[in-house]
Amino acid sequence: MRRASSFFFLLTIIATAASAQDVASYEKRTTVRKLDNGLTVIVMERPEAPVFSFATVVNVGSAQEVPGITGLAHMFEHMAFKGSDKVGTSNIAAERTALAKVEETYGAYDRARRDPVGADKARVAELEKAWKAAIDDANKYVVANEFSKIIDRVGAVGVNAFTNTDETAYFYSLPSNQVELWAYMESERFLNPVFREFYKERDVVFEERRMRTESSPIGRLVEQALAAAFTAHPYGQPVVGWPSDLQTFSATDAAAFFKKYYVPANMTMAIVGDVKTSDVMAIVEKYFGRLPKSPAPDILRTVEPKQTVERSVTAHESAQPVYLEAYHRPAAGDPDDAIYNVMSGILSQGRTSRLYRSLVRDKKIAAGAAGFNGFPGDKYPSLFAFFAIPTPGHTAADMVEPIRAEIERLKNEDVAADELQSVKTRAKANLLRRLDSNAGLALQLAQYQNQYGDWRELFRDVDKLDKVSAADIRRVAAATFVPNNRTVAMLESAKGGAK
Hints:
By secondary structure, this protein is of the alpha+beta class. It has 18 helices and 11 strands. Helix 2 crosses helix 7, helix 2 crosses helix 10 and helix 3 runs antiparallel to helix 4.
């Protein structure tokens, strides 16, 4: 034990020194500038190899959606790869006319099919036929996948994007001699987007929902658990969207969503790699300075009311049992955020974590068990959740007592000094690993700048972890893990249940 403690102490010194050295070094190589139109740009020089990575983070996710357009933030992530009025079309004037016809015919068809009073099946079929004919006409002008093909030809790597509850991000890497091409291509899809092939892509997103949620017992359970835990806040709605919304929102809806949220004041961009700051900033000004200035959208108003009763969801299916319980916790900006992160590490980090040792290794009642926080997002008050998958012969209900025994330990017993230190050391090591690549660093810088207003919060997280004490853990655990703040979701195996 003495050797182990000394080892962890040594790792702590190394990790702390590396972190301090890195943040000082990064500050010397990092420039943050806000353009006149409100776009925040971060450039970090890292000339180890002749490449650079970028990440554009837009401050919009499913939390900004309202009933009727759920899934639209994710939908626009797909549409951003469709090009612009210069990329992806053979004749933009003719295409715009054809796309206007698509929207006109879709609006008539959609109103008719959703009319709760005067539904006329023959009329609906006729309108649907006209809409599909308009789509076929518009598709004649599409140059498929041209955006991706152009950047692929010059060596793009890791071309991707994601949408979650709190943000939408776009990222890839290129050789350093392609900075101007990148700036042109990336700015074009936000300056002059064209919502071509919208309904085709909407079907793709609907299929994603079918595969990840409706065809997945765990996906269905998690969706219902979140809907039960959040009765007012949009964290209770799925990022991929509700099925009816995915079958009804339009390209016109997408254009309105884009106009509201894809404004420079709501976007943060980070460029990391073998670049010169003065050169990159000049190029960024040239291309991204074209984006029209517009006010940032309103801050989300709805706050989830305090939970005062325990809630539960139970599914009976012919599937692997699953157990989930979750407790409301504050947003990531809360002073106690680091304490929740440490508790997550104590419960779930590796094979020495408490839940793994208790449920998986010792009792052998679970194939996997974890406790994690910031679910499903962390910009707003969210959840600290416990998750377990029982082994054959055990039920979801069998997970309740051993999980709550570990919760009671956090509330009533001080975490040993060596256990607490090892968790902090691993957290620091994880931070250093995240900063290892240009791509990882660009995304982290943009995310932290976007959420906290200062990329240095990435390093301050480590300092906050260092200050967490055993008494802090007991205090926060006792306040958070109480029955009236709990939502329980169980998937119990049942013969003849849903497949």
